[in-house]
Design a protein that fits this description.
The protein has 501 residues and is α/β, with parallel strands linked by helices. Helices cover 68% and strands 10% of the residues. The longest helix is centred in the C-terminal third of the chain and has 246 residues, at 255-500.
């Protein structure tokens, strides 16, 4: 088994279908640049190893080369960056309000083709997905994230996608694949195999069997998936006729599936009995655990009571010892108190003496306090004056700050005016330099014209002189012709006279 044929059949269908279409698009020996929108896994490279594939996705994936993080509704690429832009079972996971923009973005960054493959809205496809979701929930206790998104967002309308591509200037065609009933049955079987560790090792053999034996013929209507193909900017729309084998399963191709189905039916029956026994076992274990927990609680309570009784006994013994000790301590305290009382009487006499002295000192302090109060009053008066003056200074500072701000504003405006004038002056200097240059060129042209006029005047004068000579010569010739005519007439007259004689 190759790595591609071990892929789950639903994945293999998507990528193989687009790879087959690309085989009809690609000029011989050309290496296409392809953008896979939503292709963070990089699986397209297994099917088109010669192409230069770039992937863009919202989520990262370790180990995928040339993966760019970004949204299909706002692709981070320039116009016409790739020969082909494609997306595999992605559009149905785009919120409906972003789908039109997603399609337009795919068309924008493509210089030739767009292929958008996946399930499109129809009553039968929605019903098949609902049945699959119910099977997963009730039979396998699974909540399928992607099917849940299909139901929440709704499947895209194929006609809307084709119209959006056509508005972008594209020609479009569509090719269906994955017979809906077979897709539903195979998905139930595949998910059953993947969900049970005891069956999971069988799944790759199932995928390899389908991918090698049934993929090419698995397109009898109704189908689960369509690939919408668009050709842009004068590119050739591929001929999709004959791309897949006739929609009939090859002889004997379904026998392994029938055997697997019988095996799964038997396995499922045994698993049902096992689940029933396991449930009974788990209930018995739960009851035993509940009893054990009750015994543990009773034992813990008994141990707690025993500990409390031991603690009370120890406290009683401790209290008796403490009482005897306390009586001895009280006798010692009484003796110490009597001794302290005698000392306190002597100390009291000393305190009376000190109080008199303290009264005298207190009188002095009161006198000083009055003097200090007068000083404080004067200082408070000065402070009030300072506060008033400080308020005036603050007011003046605010006004000065306001004036300074006005000056700064005017300075900025004047700087802007100066900058504009300097810019205008630079423009005038440049224009003046151009005018000086044009004037020099005009003077040069004028000098050339004057030179040519002088030369033409000399030519005209020479021609006039030649014309006068020609006129004089012509007059001479006219005169000679008249004389010759006269001589000829005389000659003819003589000839006639001689002939008459």
């Amino acid at each position: 088994m190759s790595r591609a044929t071990r892929l789950p059949f639903d994945q293999y269908q998507r990528y193989r279908l687009v790879a087959d279409i690309v085989g009809r698009l690609r000029p011989r020996r050309a290496r296409l640049s392809i953008l896979d929108v939503g292709g963070r896994t990089g699986l397209l490279r297994l099917f088109l190893p010669r192409a230069r594939v770039t992937a863009v996705d919202l989520e990262p994936c370790a180990g995928t080369p040339r993966l760019v993080l970004g949204s299909g509704a706002e692709l981070p690429f320039a116009d016409r960056s790739f020969d082909l832009v494609c997306a595999f079972d992605t559009l149905e996971h785009v919120p409906p309000r972003h789908r039109s923009r997603f399609v337009r973005e795919c068309a924008r960054v493509s210089r030739a083709w767009v292929v958008l493959a996946g399930p499109y809205a129809s009553a039968r496809v929605r019903s098949a997905e609902a049945l699959l979701q119910r099977f997963l929930k009730e039979k396998l206790e699974l909540d399928h994230r992607y099917l849940r998104e299909h139901a929440a967002y709704g499947l895209p309308e194929r006609a809307s996608v084709e119209r959006a591509l056509q508005r972008a200037g594209a020609q479009t065609a569509a090719l269906g694949h994955a017979n809906l009933e077979r897709w539903l049955a195979l998905m139930c079987v595949a998910m059953t195999l993947e969900a049970d560790p005891a069956l999971r090792s069988v799944a790759p053999a199932l995928y390899d069997w389908y991918n090698r034996s049934l993929y090419a013929s698995d397109h009898a209507e109704p189908v689960y998936r369509h690939a919408v193909v668009a050709a842009l900017h004068g590119a050739r729309l591929p001929d999709l006729k004959g791309l897949l084998a006739p929609a009939r399963a090859p002889r004997g191709a379904l026998e392994p599936f029938a055997k697997l189905t019988h095996f799964l039916s038997a396995f499922d029956a045994q698993r049902g009995a096992w689940k029933h026994e396991r449930a009974q076992f788990e209930r018995s274990v739960a009851e035993l655990r509940a009893d054990l927990d009750g015994h543990r609680a009773a034992l813990a309570e008994a141990r707690s009571e025993l500990a409390r009784a031991r603690h009370v006994l120890a406290e009683a013994s401790k209290v008796s010892t403490e009482h005897e000790k306390h009586a001895k301590e009280q006798a010692a305290v009484i003796a110490a108190l009597e001794k302290d009382l005698a000392g306190h009487k002597s100390e009291r006499a000393e305190l009376h003496k000190e109080r008199k002295e303290a009264a005298k000192v207190l009188a002095e302090h009161e006198k000083r306090a009055k003097e200090q109060a007068a000083v404080i009053a004067a200082l408070q008066q000065d402070l009030a004056g300072h506060k008033s003056e400080r308020a005036e200074l603050h007011k003046e500072r605010k006004e000065a700050a306001k004036v300074l701000a006005e000056h700064e504003k005017r300075a900025k405006e004047q700087a802007a005016v100066i900058a504009a004038l300097q810019q205008d002056l630079a423009g005038h200097k440049s224009e003046l330099a151009e005018l000086h240059k044009e004037r020099k060129e005009a003077a040069k042209v004028l000098a050339e014209h004057e030179k040519r006029e002088k030369e033409q005047a000399a030519v005209i004068a020479a021609l006039g002189q030649d014309l006068a000579g020609h006129k004089s010569e012509l007059a001479e010739l006219h005169k000679e012709r008249k004389e010759a005519a006269k001589v000829l007439a005389e000659h003819e007259k003589r000839t006639k006279e001689q002939a008459a004689a």
